[in-house]
Amino acid sequence: MKLNEQYKNVPIYLPGKSIKEVQEQLGLEQVIKLASNENPYGASRKVNERINEELAYLSIYPDGSGKKLKEKIADLYGIDDKQIILGNGSDEIIQYLSRIYLNSDSEVITSIPTFPMYKTNALMEGAHVVEAPLVDGRFDLDKMAEAITERTAIIWVCNPNNPTGGIVSEEELVHFLEKVPSHILVAVDEAYYEYVTDKSYPNTISLMSKYANLLVLRTFSKIYGLAALRIGYGIANEKVIQDLLRVKEPFNANHLAQVSAEEAISDQEFVQFCKEMNTESKRIFLKGLEELGIDYFPSESNFVLVKHKMDDDQLFQYFLNNGVIIRSGHKLGIPGTFRVTIGSIEQMNQVLKILKQII
Ligand SMILES: Cc1ncc(COP(=O)(O)O)c(C=O)c1O
Known about the structure:
The structure is a single chain. The chain is α/β, with parallel strands linked by helices. It has 2 domains: 5-43 and 269-358, Aspartate Aminotransferase, domain 1 (Alpha-Beta Complex); 45-266, Aspartate Aminotransferase, domain 2, CATH 3.40.640. Helices cover 38% and strands 15% of the residues. The protein has 13 helices and 12 strands. A hairpin with an 8-residue loop joins strand 11 and strand 12 (337-341). Helix 2 runs antiparallel to helix 10 (255-266), helix 3 (67-77) packs parallel to helix 10 and helix 4 (90-101) packs parallel to helix 5 (117-124). The longest helix has 24 residues, at 268-291. The protein is globular. 43% of the residues are buried. Pyridoxal-5'-phosphate binds next to helix 4. Pyridoxal-5'-phosphate is lined by residues 37, 89-91, 115, 158, 162, 189, 191, 219, 221, 227, 232.
């Protein structure tokens, strides 16, 4: 068998360790996972009730159009449901966008370090990837604008950026959009949008009426606590959504994911609770880091990238031995750091305690 040439450079995604795996390997009873930016408070209780009701329908295919969920999302943002596409996680929409707009003649512009799937999917299509390094953990939109060529097809902006948590402001984004030719898609990944408290953060959806080449990605995996079900969505003008629908798998968003997301979206009280808890828990954690003299990247998200002076693997193992799974910096392309999800206050105090022992 001969592997297609363009896949030879595609890295295989290496998932982090699971709680069960660590419990079994190290014989630990209590293990907490703060490695994948999941919600420590789970999902809205309404979701459990709805899933129980829907178990009777597992033999029936899901609604391939996701009509009800799209209507709920459209209501939440005051948009038309024709502006929405659902994905099996927002990951899948990154794949769809790359499939429809890229080929071996095209270029993608993004940053480094950022969420790796923009690059991975571009490589799968044989496209060339241009990476303008972050400055102070934030996207350097000026450098990215300078990198535009006639081959540029998609520009990826991760806002807040994973793994640093830095944001670009509405003013910066608009200034950038003014410089981008209208045939180039600007995809803004807002997976952590619900956690942001900085008032300068863009209202990207409202910018779409002026910039038809703008697309936003959001997900139910983070604040809505539905990562296991795999459901995310893209919002763009109707023409872009129609383009995306050409490559959509017929039943990509499964039934339990759709109905769970419907319930989750209707419980905005829970979303607000998670946001407030995240803000408070992060405040306590950052204060603790400062007291220990440890540097970090300011974050508008539910994770923090912390700087350290140890060997990355040793630090990771030390945390693991103490029952905490973190994301090691070298796996993120930034040795000398680790990324930790903001868990409950109790969990963050545990992380601080471990850091104190290390120091
Ligand atoms: C920036 C960013 N985009 C997209 C995703 C993928 O999310 P989903 O679970 O919706 O596929 C993640 C997941 O960690 C992420 O951090």
